[in-house]
Structures are given as structure tokens and as C-alpha cells.
Specification:
The protein starts with 18 loop residues before the first strand and ends with a helix. About 50% of the residues are buried. The chain has a domain of about 100 residues: ANL, C-terminal domain (GMP Synthetase, Chain A, domain 3). By secondary structure, it is α/β, with parallel strands linked by helices. It has a 9-stranded mixed sheet. Strands 9-8-6-7-10-11-21 form a 7-stranded mixed sheet, with helices on both faces. The chain is about 30% helix and about 25% strand. The chain is built from 15 helices and 28 strands. Helix 2 crosses helix 3, helix 4 crosses helix 5 and helix 10 packs across helix 11.
Length: about 550
């Protein structure tokens, strides 16, 4: 087992020479994993935002967008103004501030301004429908809702129907009274409200891949642990990096990539306020020349198709990362062949704030999720609760400093997932091979029992994607005429390829050659796209239904 990072009350003080001194937090990087200690009253906004001016980065670009740049000094001032504007609206310490905000500097101002002023920001998926927003507005008991005007068509009807309605409702930008106009009138200085490492810091509503979204409550320390252990210790992110995340800020994976990772190391982030596509993401990379790119498998697949005919300049990139859904080995191989770069795959969750098992820059293996991230303990259990043998799939549980405290207003789900001893039930099935590398087999609910033998849909999907006609695939279980479960495949074809009965036979034969005989899909359907959550996860439950 990996050793756990410890809070101030449990850890001895190391020598100053071995520590990275930050306001309110000390990081001892001489240890493996880094040891993190927090001062009483720690507020995450201080090391992530306030310190940069004092460290000489005031004039450095913190945020870059097509509309303009924001320096670290401007970021700190606008965070203060926003926190004061929220106070001026009468929002009190500990109250929730809901955000339906596009990827833009105002997202930073609102998120960190709320945290610094002692409030709890809750960033929501920006492509939900009014009924989803209405549920969350009621479930969260929010004191305020702020939204980018682009999302008003869904947010405003939800606010009108909410019972009770949030008492404060305001657009972020636009004509007349809005958050930006209040910020312009607010004071530029703000003292951080004392909080504490384990105090509630922000919420993230889960993607709702299997039902209603759930409010996941994260603490101040979680942002630090994820940024240090994954961002700095494993990925080696540095101050001179420019980072671009196609995954959006409302998604915890995107929030880390595009906001907390660059702010933790004093780097620069590039934001795209539109829906990411293969075209606009590659254009952005060519224009702003990031050194680190974070994507999801679906987007990497689309970009590879575009790269067959386009030749954008991707020479600035030194590191590519993927999460949200398992990265097929064939995608890894195709991307490396085309760009010369490996894609580092990782598996994580909203509840863990980010990946807890990951490949690393010096150890990336196609088709594998990698090894435990520093600071995380990982175990795989049998149905009886024993640890599995190498090569045997089982239930994945993890333990680390970045795990959420609980689910809001959902004690049953909290009890089922946040287990004694700090363990988190992830809902994933994984196996560990003889060399200590982990392979993701799918969600527990997605596993198939074919012929009495457990079968991973991800394994079948990976074989389908190896076929040159296939871009994406999803596999679910479907009872046959005898009521026995058999694999069923849903396939997205490459541009210009037409689905046919002959191609179905060819794909079945391809799988039979590469897999155990019982694993080949008995049915194959060709579709234009697969149903996914906004964060890129395939919604297999929709295919099953």
C-alpha cells in the first residue's frame, strides 16, 4: 500500500530546505509521495490565486483566450472584486453559489471569489436541460445562481419553475445589471475568510450517467492534493507550461487541467469558450501553442480523422493526457504514429476529483490505466471482500486526500460509497497484472457474464476499434432468444465508410480472431454517434434500453 499524505496535526515539521513554502500550506517534496500539511484556517484561494503577485508573477499571463489575456495581477484583483460583490448581494458564509458559466475568465473570478469570501461555488454542466437545472436548484438549496447569457434559454425557465427559487439570480455578463457590473463597483481588496483543510470548499454535481446528478462535496485540501500529487508529482507540470484542456471547467477533470493545475505551478492556461470539436481544438493548439493538452478519447478519435487531411502545427506539445473514458490501445498507437506523442491515460472520478490510477510521462502503456497516482492507495476486491489475485477482476476501491467528504442530501449513497477507513467505492471493475499495472474493465454495472464467464465491454470495444473502418464502439449485454446475455456492439464508422451486412460479418470475424470465442458481438449496429455525457463517458444504459 502507498503511504497517505498527512494533515498538520499528524505530521512532524520537516526542514525548510526540503519544503515548498506556500501561504497556509507546506509541501515536502523530499518524501514520496509529497507530504502536505495545512495551517489552521487554510483557504485554498490564497495559494492558488493570491500568492502569485508576491512571487513576482503579477505581469505574467495567467489566462489566454481569443478575446484577450488576463495577468496574474488582474486575476487576483478580479477575484477580490467578485468576492466583495457576492458579499454585497447578501450571500453568507457557507452558502452555495451555483455557476452555469462557460470557459472564460469570469469562471475563475466567480469560483475563487466565492471560496475566498467563505462561500461554496458549485459549477454545473452547461449543456443540461431546464428540467435538470430545476432539480439541482431545488436539491442544492442555493443562495444564488449565475449564468452566462448563452445558457439562458435553459437556465431561466428552470429558475422560473424552481420551488423555492434561489433568492439571487444574475447573468454573469450582458447589458444592465450583471455580475461584471457589480464587480466594477466593488472594492479590489479582500481578506480570505479562514476555513480549514477539511472544510467544505466547492461542490461538483456528478455527470448523471445512470440517473439524477448527485452533489459531491469537496474540501479545501482536495484541490491541493490533486494538483500536487497528479499535476506536479506525476505529470511534472511546471511554471513555463501552457496548458489547454478540451474538457470543460465544470467537469472536475477539466477544472484541474485548465484551472487548478496551472494556478498551482504558476503556469498559463488557454480557454476555449465554445463546444470543443476536432477543428477548433487543433486550431487553438496551433494558435496558442500549448505545451500540455488534455482531451478525452472521443475527441482524440475525431482529431485523428481530421489529421488524415490536415497538417496543423502541433510541435509545441510535450504531453498529451486523456481521461473520462478508457483510452483504447489502438487510439494510443494511431496518435503516437501521427504526432510522435504518447497519450497518457488515467482513470478517476468526480468523487476523487481526478485520476487515481494513471500512466506517467516515462511509463505509458497502450490499453492500460497505469499505476496508482502518488498519494493514492488502491485495492481490488472480490465479491467476498478479499483482495483479488493478479489478473482477476474485482471492485475497485481507492483512498487518498482528495476524496469527497459526502454526497449532499443523500445519506444512503454516502454510506454505500464513502466507506470506513477513508475508502471510496468507485463503482469500477479493474484488474492488476503481474507487473503491477492496472486495466480498466468497465463500470460494475457494465460487466457482462457470457457463458458463465465475466467479460469486459472495454476489451471488446478495443478490438473493434483496431479495425480500420471503426472510429468508436460501445458494447452492452443483450439477452438472446433463450434469455442468455450476449455482447451487442454499437459502432461509429470512419468518414466515407458505409455500413453493410458484409462489414458486420467482417467485424465479427475480426473479433473472433482477436478474442476468446465467447466474447465476439452477436449483433452490430452502425450509428452516427454514441450517447455520451457532457464529460465524454459513454451512456451504455441508454444503449441497453
Amino acid at each position: 500500500m502507498m503511504s497517505r499524505a498527512r494533515d498538520a496535526a499528524a505530521a512532524p515539521r520537516a526542514s525548510a530546505e526540503r519544503e515548498r513554502a506556500l501561504p497556509g500550506v507546506a509541501v515536502d517534496r523530499a518524501r514520496s509521495p509529497s507530504e502536505i500539511r495545512f495551517d489552521p484556517g487554510f483557504n485554498a484561494a490564497v495559494p492558488f490565486v493570491d500568492r502569485h503577485v508576491a512571487e513576482g508573477r503579477g505581469g505574467k499571463k495567467a489566462i489566454r483566450t481569443a478575446a484577450g489575456d488576463v495577468t496574474y495581477a488582474e486575476l487576483a484583483e478580479n477575484v477580490n472584486r467578485c468576492g466583495n460583490a457576492l458579499r454585497g448581494l447578501g450571500i453568507e458564509r457557507g452558502q452555495r453559489v451555483l455557476m452555469v458559466v462557460k470557459d472564460c475568465p469570469e469562471f475563475f473570478y466567480l469560483f475563487w471569489g466565492a471560496i475566498k469570501a467563505g462561500m461554496v461555488p458549485v459549477a454545473l454542466n452547461t449543456i443540461l436541460r431546464a428540467s435538470d437545472y430545476q432539480f439541482i436548484f431545488g436539491d442544492s438549496g442555493a443562495a444564488a445562481v449565475f449564468w452566462s447569457p448563452e445558457f439562458g434559454a435553459e437556465v431561466e425557465p428552470a429558475l422560473a419553475a424552481a420551488r423555492p427559487a434561489p433568492p439571487r439570480m444574475l447573468r454573469v455578463t450582458g447589458e444592465g445589471r450583471c455580475l461584471l457590473s457589480l464587480m466594477a463597483e466593488a472594492q479590489p481588496d479582500l481578506r480570505a475568510v479562514p476555513a480549514g483543510a477539511t472544510a467544505s470548499c466547492f461542490w461538483a454535481y456528478s455527470s448523471g450517467s445512470t440517473g439524477r446528478p448527485k452533489g459531491v462535496v469537496h474540501r479545501h485540501r482536495d484541490l491541493v492534493a490533486n494538483s500536487q500529487f497528479l499535476g506536479q508529482d506525476l505529470l511534472g507540470l511546471r511554471e513555463d507550461d501552457v496548458m489547454f484542456s478540451a474538457a470543460k471547467l465544470f467537469f472536475t477533470y477539466g477544472m484541474a487541467n485548465a484551472m487548478t493545475f496551472p494556478l498551482w505551478v504558476g503556469a498559463t492556461t488557454v480557454l476555449l469558450d465554445a463546444r470543443p470539436t476536432a477543428q477548433n481544438t487543433l486550431e487553438l493548439i496551433e494558435r496558442f501553442r500549448p505545451s500540455v493538452y488534455f482531451g478525452v478519447p472521443t475527441l482524440y478519435a475525431a482529431q485523428l480523422q481530421l489529421l488524415e487531411s490536415a497538417r496543423p502545427d502541433l510541435s509545441s506539445l510535450r504531453l498529451c493526457y486523456s481521461a473520462g473514458e478508457s483510452l483504447p490501445a489502438e487510439l494510443f498507437r494511431r496518435w503516437k504514429e501521427r504526432t510522435g506523442l504518447a497519450i497518457l491515460d488515467g482513470i478517476g472520478s468526480t468523487e476523487a476529483l481526478g485520476p487515481f490510477v494513471s500512466n506517467s510521462p516515462d511509463d505509458a502503456r497502450p490499453g492500460l490505466a497505469g499505476r496508482p497516482v502518488p498519494g493514492w492507495e488502491v485495492r481490488i476486491l472480490t465479491p467476498g471482500g478479499d483482495e483479488t489475485a493478479p489478473g482477476e477482476p474485482g471492485r475497485l476501491q481507492v483512498r487518498g486526500m482528495a476524496t469527497a467528504a459526502y454526497y449532499w442530501n443523500n445519506p444512503d449513497k454516502t454510506a454505500a460509497s464513502m466507506l470506513p477507513g477513508g475508502w471510496l467505492e468507485t463503482g469500477d471493475t479493474m484488474l492488476r497484472d503481474e507487473e503491477g499495472y492496472y486495466r480498466h474493465c468497465g463500470r460494475n454495472d457494465d460487466m457482462l457474464k457470457v457463458g458463465g464467464i465475466w467479460c469486459s465491454p472495454i476489451e471488446i470495444e478495443a478490438r473493434l476499434i483496431e479495425h480500420p473502418a471503426v472510429v468508436e464502439a460501445a458494447v452492452v449485454g443483450r439477452p438472446d432468444a433463450a434469455g442468455l446475455v450476449k455482447p451487442e456492439a454499437w459502432v461509429v464508422l470512419r468518414h466515407g465508410v458505409v455500413g453493410s451486412a458484409a462489414l458486420i460479418d467482417e467485424l465479427m470475424a475480426h473479433c473472433k480472431r482477436r478474442l476468446a470465442p465467447y466474447k465476439f458481438p452477436r449483433q452490430v449496429h452502425f450509428v452516427e454517434e454514441l450517447p455520451k455525457t457532457a464529460t465524454g463517458k459513454i451512456q451504455r444504459y441508454r444503449l441497453r434500453s
